[in-house]
Write a structure and sequence with these properties.
The protein is α/β, with parallel strands linked by helices and 160 residues long. It is built from four helices and seven strands, in the order E-H-E-H-E-E-E-H-E-H-E.
Length: 160
């Protein structure tokens, strides 16, 4: 079975689509959607606050998870009334899925990489919303994006 993949033009568009899907869980890729690679601590903290502010508008969301394969962590994992907020550093996406297993369904993974975020969505049975990475991405993410473009038609079906 292929998982649904959608494209969004930005955070607001991704949040709107998550709301239309009435998701209960939203998993966000941290780099570069919440904070740019190797950015300062305050930028990460501000990015998390910005995402939470946008997601707070969605009445069905019960869990918001920030997931990164890097070691970086926020100064504090903020709270949001009525929503469980989780931050997973060193997540080993898409290999490890145990940390996500207790999250309520339906869910969505919002990320920029098919090879990590998209495959994680597929393994969890969630919708994948792909955001384009910003220009000037480091070489590693650019190579991952190229690999993702090759495998996306094999793993995902486009939303109607």
């Amino acid at each position: 079975m292929r998982t649904v993949a959608e494209h969004a033009t930005g955070l607001g568009d991704a949040a709107r689509r998550a709301g239309e899907l009435s998701v209960r869980t939203v998993i966000f890729d941290v780099e570069p959607l919440v904070a740019y690679w190797n950015g300062a601590q305050d930028i990460l903290d501000e990015g998390i606050a910005r995402v939470l502010s946008e997601m707070a508008k969605l009445p069905t969301v019960e869990v918001i998870c920030f997931s990164t394969n890097s070691l970086r962590r926020p100064s504090v994992v903020p709270s949001l009334a009525g929503v469980r907020v989780v931050y997973l550093a060193s997540a080993a996406k898409p290999l490890r899925t145990t940390a996500y297993q207790g999250f309520p369904r339906p869910g969505v993974v919002i990320g920029d990489q098919v090879a990590t975020d998209g495959i994680l969505a597929r393994r969890l049975g969630y919708t994948f919303i792909k955001l384009d990475p910003p220009s000037g991405s480091p070489a590693g993410p650019r190579l991952m994006a190229a690999a993702g473009r090759l495998v996306q038609p094999l793993l995902f079906t486009e939303a109607d």
